Amino acid sequence: MIFKQSARTDPEQIFIVCRNTSGAAISAGVPVAFEVDAVSDGNSVSICVDAEMSLFAGIADAAMADDAYGLVQVYGYRASAYGSCASGGNVAGTPLMPVTGQLYLTDTTSSAAGAAGFKFVSLFEAVAASAAYSTLHQWKVFIRAL
Prior knowledge:
The protein is 4% helix and 39% strand.
């Protein structure tokens, strides 16, 4: 684990070192989960799929080539995570979940997130409703995936 040096004006952040075993590059801001297949070694990650949703690792901090190592943010404020609204708009504090097989987070209800055992990422800004709400955007989020 890498703990970002705390400064009075910067948010606290924690990162882990992981290896991308998804078979393709992973961009910065993409949610990832620990792998549970044959290549699993405790630090292998891939994009989230149903079977691995409970193994959410965090948000990729920078682009990772396939079979390369990189940092995954597991705690703290992040100014850029990919997201897409399932509904028209959201308020800060809305729980977010990875979309299985996709490279982004989406909004969900607190009860649905709780039922899924997923309360790791929260929206940290208001997202206005618009005709383009279903397109990918970079959102400010708070991660708690320790």
